[in-house]
């Protein structure tokens, strides 16, 4: 059986399924977690914050060669305001389609996967049933065909949309739009709430507030997911500025037990998140990793196309048994392949498995 090879960023999928092969285990039970990425303009430096605390980073000054600037970031967990459920009808995607066809204008809440996101070059008017119009700046098409319009007056929703990828599971709230605007096959609505779906039994971590300090002054505090542009007065050359992008992300995390050792792993469970993998990272914390999940068991090959630090890759069967563990270094041209069909792959620091005495045959408990 000769598998086909499909290239991705850090993952090559060599799918070799018998025709009668069954669907694999259900998706891992995840919780929502947060991190912050800081991109310093004019350099390739990227810093990541994965835990609340106070952090100081030195960046190269873009206006004075050989000098550095220091950025201080404070991350504080905040109690997330409870979402008011009253007034929203709990629906399935099929309910949304049916209610739209019936001309309903109810406020609904439903879960669906992201199909596509579109940002308009300029705001467009959207007529509402009662007569007035609302200015729309973006739209989200779900996998079931529902069209969700995002009003310009909700920049928080627009920023959130820039953090999602096709295939992500989301909870969507909004008012149904009947009539001409409801021609989308899955119905249409004006969105007033977007969030990543929390898996059944999963827990959601507290939201973060991220405060930026520069030269002893507070330059802003952010809590909305998405990209936030920082324009910072250069401390080395008067009148010049330094620029950076602060990216707040919400992502899915799974709490594992690997041969009895607790591990916190980011979940890559869509084609896009698997393709992105560990790109843009400078490393992993000691007991943190990335768990790749596949709906159908497959032969998987991983390569070090864009990952910049050494890792170890554990290939895990549908029932949680480690089949083989392979090591990869930056610049390796040769990939590593699972010893059999797998439903999961776990990437960790390269020495993590050796330090913890984890070998092939060990079991991984995946919730």
Structure description:
With 367 residues, the chain is mainly beta. It folds into 3 domains: 4-28 and 269-365, Jelly Rolls (Sandwich), CATH 2.60.120.1140; 34-78 and 206-249; 89-196, Beta Barrel (OB fold (Dihydrolipoamide Acetyltransferase, E2P)), CATH 2.40.50. The chain contains 4 helices and 23 strands. Strands 1, 2, 3, 4, 15, 16, 17, 18, 19, 20, 21, 22 and 23 form a 13-stranded mixed β-sheet that branches. A 5-stranded mixed barrel has the order 8-9-10-12-11. A hairpin with a 3-residue loop joins strand 1 and strand 2 (11-15). It starts with a strand and ends with a strand. The relative contact order is 0.18. Mean pLDDT is 83; it is low at 1-21, 80-84 and 200-204.
Record keyword descriptors for this entry.
five-stranded mixed beta barrel; disordered N terminus; 3 domains; 13-stranded mixed β-sheet; mainly beta; OB fold (Dihydrolipoamide Acetyltransferase, E2P); 50% strand; Jelly Rolls; flat; 367 residues
């Amino acid at each position: 059986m000769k598998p086909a090879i499909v290239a991705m960023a850090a993952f090559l999928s060599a799918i070799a399924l018998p025709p009668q092969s069954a669907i694999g285990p259900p998706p891992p039970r995840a919780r929502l977690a947060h991190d912050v990425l800081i991109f310093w303009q004019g350099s390739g430096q990227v810093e990541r914050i994965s835990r609340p605390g106070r952090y100081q980073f030195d960046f190269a000054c873009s206006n004075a060669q050989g000098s550095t600037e220091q950025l201080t970031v404070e991350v504080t967990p905040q109690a997330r305001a409870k979402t008011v459920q009253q007034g929203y009808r709990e629906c399935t995607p099929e309910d949304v389609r049916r209610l739209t066809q019936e001309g309903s204008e109810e406020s609904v809440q439903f879960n669906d996967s992201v199909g596509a996101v579109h940002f308009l070059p300029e705001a467009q008017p959207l007529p509402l049933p009662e007569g007035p119009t609302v200015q729309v700046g973006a739209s989200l098409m779900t996998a079931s065909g529902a069209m969700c319009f995002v009003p310009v007056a909700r920049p928080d929703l627009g920023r959130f949309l820039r953090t999602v990828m096709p295939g992500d599971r989301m909870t969507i709230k909004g008012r149904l739009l009947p009539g001409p605007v409801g021609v989308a096959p899955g119905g249409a609505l004006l969105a007033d709430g977007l969030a990543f779906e929390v898996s059944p039994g999963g827990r959601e971590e507290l939201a973060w507030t991220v405060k930026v300090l520069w030269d002893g002054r507070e330059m802003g505090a952010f809590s909305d997911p998405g990209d936030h542009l920082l324009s910072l007065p250069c401390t080395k050359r008067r009148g010049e500025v330094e620029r950076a992008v602060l990216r707040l992300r919400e992502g899915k995390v799974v709490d594992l037990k690997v041969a009895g050792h607790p591990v916190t792993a980011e979940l890559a469970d869509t084609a896009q998140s698997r393709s992105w993998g560990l790109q843009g990272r400078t490393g992993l914390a000691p007991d943190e990793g990335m768990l790749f999940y596949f709906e159908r068991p497959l032969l998987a090959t991983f390569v070090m196309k864009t990952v910049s630090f050494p890792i170890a890759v554990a290939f895990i069967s549908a029932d949680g048994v480690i089949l083989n563990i392979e090591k990869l270094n930056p610049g390796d041209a040769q990939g590593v392949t699972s010893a059999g069909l797998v439903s999961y792959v776990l990437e960790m620091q390269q020495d993590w498995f050796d330090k913890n005495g984890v070998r092939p045959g060990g079991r991984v408990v995946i919730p």
